[in-house]
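Pilot study result, target chain (331 residues):
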Amino acid sequence: MSLVVTALPGATFGGLVTAPVNASEIVSAAEASPVALPSLLNQFNGFLLIKGMSGLEDEPELLLRLSQVFGTEVESYHETRMAQQNVHPEIPEILMVSNIPPADRKPPPQPDPPHTADGCLPTQFPHRRGWHTDQSYRRPPPDASLFFCVVPAPKGQAQTLYANGIAAYEGLTPEMKTRVNSLVGIHAKPGVGRGEVAVRAGETPMKLGPGDQPQRQPVVRVHPETGAKSLYLCEAGQMDWIDGPFVDMEPGPDGEGAKLLYKLMAHYTKSEFVYVHDWDRGDLVIYDNRTLIHAATWFDAARFQRLMWRTTVSGNPGAEYAGEAKSWVIP
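Predicted structure:
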């Protein structure tokens, strides 16, 4: 099978993969040449879009098989203690991001105001909130994710935004590169009372067990396969605003670390680094968590249903994590 790969329309990064075959044939071809798609992912700065993969919804094991091409381990969401109603009933490696019962994932709120001054969709932090990379609050963090659209929301709603950390790092001034090259961020699990909103509200943080402790991550990561440097950051909801967001900087939501994080995130999410994906049924996106961040957008969940499947792949986080045991698994 010959895959046709072109630059992603409307983006400064990413590849669009097309092939005149069905989902099953694409998965079989990927397994027969297991370096092809991962190499393309690297070539296009960590983002691939494959259209017309609707056959996956009838054979979810195909999504698992395709995920296995991108790493040595596809995460079981039972191991990470994900709520049972959000895990696929047959394949625990598939997370269901959905408002369709029994799944209970609600969409994020609309930004305030809901549009930019020129009437466009807000993408830049802090107008757009929710930017993150998957599971940065664990060590070693995951390599890549596959995100598949089973039931889309109407056009113009429920877009997913992606930002290119390689280009964002390259776009820093030499002085800022020097400042962040050795900087370490402190990442915390959402919903445990250590995010910016919770700290500002004076909430008492949860007492965390050994498998849920905040984790330190380099702000600049070196991709283990390409050698490219990229920013590795999240914003308010997935950084630790009690002890962080950065090691050895003034902590707290009004400290010097917070000011630097705001500055970096505003830079990271400039329009030239961002791609907005409006979903069609059967779209499959593959994104590299080591080099990209993403954010969900609102949809009218009172009127419409949406179902997305996600798998998370690990196995090659880089030399920084060599030999580490999983921080979230306690012997």
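One observation from the pilot: The longest strand covers residues 144-151. A full batch analysis is planned for the follow-on phase.
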